[in-house]
Design brief:
Elements (H helix, E strand, L loop, with lengths): L5 E4 L3 E5 L3 E6 L3 E3 L1 H14 L6 E4 L5 E3 L5
């Protein structure tokens, strides 16, 4: 595995940035809202600006997406 370049902890997830990908570990029992999805996009875009990258969800805990909000 490659080394972690940067880690960002948001209220609902932990993001580990590598050269060409980001690993997200959403916290337990989170229900993702549209705002949180946009927060993820902003965090990833800011760290991989103008580069292609892969988003990996490391699903350790149970979490859901609010289908009425997305």
């Amino acid at each position: 595995m490659t080394r972690i370049l940067r880690t960002i902890e948001l209220e609902f997830t932990i993001l580990e940035f590598h050269e060409n990908f980001v690993v997200s570990r959403v916290r337990e029992n989170v229900v993702l809202s549209k705002k949180q999805v946009f927060d993820l996009i902003d965090a990833c875009s800011g760290n991989h600006e103008h580069k292609n990258f892969v988003y990996i969800s490391k699903r350790i805990h149970n979490y859901n997406v609010d289908p009425t909000d997305i």
